[in-house]
Amino acid sequence: MRPFLRTLSILWLVLWLPLAQANSPEIRHWQLDNGARVYFVQTETLPIVDLRVTFDAGAARDGEQAGLARLTNSLLSQGAAGLNADELALAFESVGARYSSGSERDMAWLQLRSLTRPEALTAATDTLAMILAAPEFPEADLERQRRQMLVALQAERQSPPTIAERALYEALYGDHPYASAPQGTEDSVRALSREAVVEFHEQYYTAGNAVLAIVGDLSANEARELSERLLADLPAGDRAPQLPEPEPPEPQTVHIPYPSAQTHVLIGQLGIARGDEDYFPLYVGNHILGGSGLVSMLVHEMRERRGLSYSSYSYFVPSAERGPFILGTQVRADRTGEALEVLENLFVEFRAEGPSADRLQAAQENITGSFPLNIDSNRKIVGYVSMIGFYGLPLDHLDTFIGQVEAVTQAAIVSSFQNRLDPEHRVRILVGPEGILADEDE
Amino acid sequence: MRPFLRTLSILWLVLWLPLAQANSPEIRHWQLDNGARVYFVQTETLPIVDLRVTFDAGAARDGEQAGLARLTNSLLSQGAAGLNADELALAFESVGARYSSGSERDMAWLQLRSLTRPEALTAATDTLAMILAAPEFPEADLERQRRQMLVALQAERQSPPTIAERALYEALYGDHPYASAPQGTEDSVRALSREAVVEFHEQYYTAGNAVLAIVGDLSANEARELSERLLADLPAGDRAPQLPEPEPPEPQTVHIPYPSAQTHVLIGQLGIARGDEDYFPLYVGNHILGGSGLVSMLVHEMRERRGLSYSSYSYFVPSAERGPFILGTQVRADRTGEALEVLENLFVEFRAEGPSADRLQAAQENITGSFPLNIDSNRKIVGYVSMIGFYGLPLDHLDTFIGQVEAVTQAAIVSSFQNRLDPEHRVRILVGPEGILADEDE
User: Fold this and answer.
1) Cβ–Cβ contacts within 10 Å for residue B158, how many?
2) Which residue in the set A93, A303, A403 is minimally distant from B294, CB to CB?
3) In Å, how far are A44, A177, B43, B157, B215 from B376, measured between CA atoms?
4) Domain residue extents for chain A
5) What is the pLDDT, as a whole number, of residue B357?
6) CA distance A265 to A298
7) Given A13, A15, A96, which is nearest B373 (Cβ)?
8) A and B: number of Cβ contacts within 8 A
9) Among the four given CATH numbers 3.30.830.10, 3.40.50.150, 3.30.70.640, 2.40.50.100, the one describing domain A252-432
C-alpha cells in the first residue's frame, strides 16, 4: 500500500473503530536527571503530539517588577540560538507545527502541536529546545513587546470587567504576590529592563522548575527520548520556593467610578488551593450556586425571579496558594444596592443549608454527563495533564473524577462551604456610575 | 460496572486503542421524503454528535436587500414555538448542548453539538427543530440585531482589510449577486423589514433547500431517525435556483484613501467553482505560490528578497459559481507601486512556468503530511461533510484527497493556471494614503 494511502486508512480507521475491551487510563510519570518532571499520556487516535512545558514562573514571581513574567514569556520565541523571530516561526511552519505560549499568576508555559512523522517531530522539538534554553531577548523585540503591553493596558481602562478583576485581586491579596496583575501597570511596564528579563529567565526557566506534559501517538520510549531531547539543554536550577499563605482581607467596598449604565459587581473572598481535600464538594456546590451558567440558583434568583441581571455567576480559582472565590454580576446601576443584598443573602443561605436533593442530583448528572466534552481533544487532555503535574495532584485525578463527583453529599457541601469560605472577610468591587449606593462607607 | 465508570472507561479506552485492521471511510447519504439531503459519518471515539444544517440561503439570495440573509439567520434562535431567546438557550444548556449559526455568500447554517445520551440528544434535537421550523422573529430582537449590524458596519470603516475585501467583491462581480457583502450596507440594513425576513425564511429555509451533515457516535438507524425527527416539520419547498455565471471584470484599479502608513493591497480575478476538475492542481499550485504562509514563493520574494512586506498571500475561494482568486499584501505606502509590480510579475511568471520540481515535492509532502490536522476533530469533519453535501462533491472526496494531491504534476499546474486564470481581467484594490502611485489611472 502506498504510504499516503496507509496514513489515510489509519486515520479513518480510528474514526470507525468498534469499541474493544477496556483498558485503564494511565498517566506515566518520570523525572529527568536534571530534575524536570515529565507526564505522558499515550493516545493513538491521530498521528499528532501535543506537548506543554510549564514553569513556576508566573506573575507571582514578578516581585516589584509587575509584568516581568509576561514580558519574559512573550519574548522567548523572538530570537534564539542565532535565529530571529521569522526564522523560528518558519522552522515550525515548514513542518506543520504550531507553537504558542502564555503566562498567568502561577505559571508560564510553552505549547507545541506537531505531527508524529519523525522528521517533523524532531525539527519541531529541536526548535522548541532552542527557544527554551537559548532565547536571546533582542532589544528591538523587547521594545515592541513593551509597546504592545502598554497598548493593552490602555484598552483595559475601557473594560469594566478587567478593571474590576484587577481591583479585586488588589483588595483581596494586599501585600501577597497574587495582588499584582500579570499584565503589570503602565509604570512597571515602562521600567522593565532587558537585564531583569535575562535574570528572570535564568532563575525560573530551569529543569528543576519545569513540568513537561506530552499527549500523543508515541510509545513510552519515544516519549522518554523526546523529553530528554527537549529539556537536555536546560540548566538544572532549583524549584521556585513556595509562596506565602495569603491572609484573609479586611471587609471593604471599593467603588471605581465608570460612566456606564450598568454596574459591574464582584464579591471576592479567599477560596482554595489546588489539591484541597474539599475540592469536589466545593466544585459541585458551586456548580449549583452559580457555576452552571443559565441553570444556577444565582441566575434563577437574579434573573428569573427578580429581573435584576442577565448575567450572574460564581467560581473558584484554585491556585498554588488559596485563589479567590468570586460572586459576580452586571446590573442596572440604580439597582446595584438591591443586587448586592440578593447576591450576598443567597450565598449566606446556601452556605448554611446547601442545595436541595433535586438540585444536587441534577448537578451531578449534568457534570458527569458532560464530562466527555472536557476531554474531547488532545489539547484539552494536555491541559489537564499539565495541571495535574504542576500542582502535584494524584495521577488518577481524571480517572476518579466522575466517582468523586457522584460521591458528594448535601452534608459535605455544607461543611466544605463553611470550612473554606468566610463571608465576613469579603471584598466588594463596584465598577459603575457614582452614587449607586445610598451608603458606600462601611 | 456502574454507569459513570463505564462511560469513563469507554472514553479512555478509545484514547488508548491499538490500531486494528483497516476499514474504509464512508459517508452515508440518503434523502428524506420532504427532499432534505442527509450525509452521515459514524465515529465512535467520543459519546458526542456534531451536526450542521446548511441552506442555500446565503447573501447571494439577498437580492436588493443586502444583509437580509444574515439578519434572518441570526434571528432564528431569538424566539421559536412560543419560547423566547433565554428559554431556547436554557433548553440547550440544561442538556450540555452547544448551538451556533452563521451565514456567508453561498450558505447559511445552524450547528449543534450534543452528547449522545438519549435524553440529551432528544431534547437538543427537538429544540433545534423548533428553531428551524417555527422561528418567530420578534420585532424587539430584530431591532437589537439591526443595531448590532450597524455597529459592526461602523467598525468596518476602521478596518482596511475589510474595506478592501468589500471593494474587491464589488469591482470583481459588478451586477452579479456575489458583489454585495453579507453584512449589508448602512442604508440596506436600516431598510430591512420583519416582513422581508419572514418571506426569506419561507422561501429558503425549506427541506428541498437543506443539507444535513451528522458526525458522531450513532448507528445508521439512529442517524436516520435523528434526521427525520429534526427536519420533519420543515416545509418541502424548492431548491434555490442556480446563480448566474459571473462575467470577467474590466481591468481596473480602485484606490480608497485611508490614513495609514501601510497600503493594504488586493488583486482579484475570477477563480473557480467548487467541483472544478482542475481543483487539485490549482490547490497545490496556490500552496506553492502564496498559500503556505511563511514558506511560499510570494513571501520569499516580497519579504526575504526585497524586504517589502511581512505578509503576502494568495488564495482561492471556490464557491457555487466562480469565486475569486486573490493575491494580497500589506506594504509600506511609499513602496506600493513596487509591490504591485513584484506581485503581478511573480504571478505571471508562475502561471507561465509553474513551480520547480523541488518546490512541488515539498508542497505535496507538506499538504499530505499535515492532512491529519485538517480532520482532527468531529467539528472539522462535520464542516467537510457539509461542504461535500452542499456542493455535491464526490462522497469519497476526503478519502481520495491525499492521492489527488500526490498525482499533481508541474504540467497540470501550468495548464490549470492558464485555463482558469486570466491576469488580463484583474481588479486591484489599494487601501492606503493618497498619492501612493505615480499614475493611478489606466
Assistant:
1) 9
2) A93
3) 12, 40, 12, 37, 13
4) 27-231, 252-432
5) 97
6) 14
7) A96
8) 168
9) 3.30.830.10
E strand or H helix that includes residue A38: strand A37-42
Sequence-distant (6+) residues with CB within 8 A of A271 are A282, A316, A317, A318, A322, A323, A324, A325, A420, A421
State yes or no: ipTM above 0.90.
Answer: no
pLDDT of residue B432: 93
- CA A197 and chain centroid, separation: 23
Spatial separation of the C-alpha atoms in residues B130 and A175, rounded to whole Å: 55
d(CA B14, CA B12) in angstroms, rounded, equals 5
Q: Check if the beta carbon of residue B9 is closer than 8 Å to that of residue B1.
A: yes
Q: Please judge whether A399 and B8 are an interchain contact, meaning their C-beta atoms are less than 8 angstroms apart.
A: yes
Q: Which residues of B32-43 are buried (b: 16+ CB within 10 A; e: fewer)?
A: bebbbbbbbbbb
Q: For residues A112 and A41, give the distance between their C-alpha atoms in angstroms, rounded to a whole number.
A: 15
First to last CA, chain B: 78
Return the CATH number of B27-231, one of 3.30.565.10, 3.40.50.2000, 3.30.830.10, 1.10.730.10: 3.30.830.10
Please check whether residue B328 is in contact with residue B314, taking contact to mean a CB–CB distance below 8 angstroms: yes
> Which residues from B are below 8 Å from A89, CB to CB?
294
Closest-CA residue in chain A for B294?
A90
**Residue B362, C-beta contacts closer than 8 angstroms, at least 6 positions apart:** B295
Q: What is the mean pLDDT of each run of 10 residues along chain B (442 residues)?
A: 37 34 64 96 88 98 98 97 93 92 97 93 97 96 94 88 97 97 97 98 98 96 97 95 97 94 96 96 98 90 88 96 97 93 96 96 91 83 95 92 96 98 96 74 42
* Dihedral over alpha carbons A165, A168, A172, A178 (to 10 degrees): 30
Give pLDDT, residue A2: 38
Interface of A with B in 83-102 (CB under 8 A): 86, 89-90, 93-96
Nearest to B290 by CA among B321, B313, B260: B313
In 3-state terms, what secondary structure has residue A18?
coil
What is the mean pLDDT of the segment spanning A277-305?
A: 93
Q: Check A370 against B11: CB less than 8 A apart.
A: no
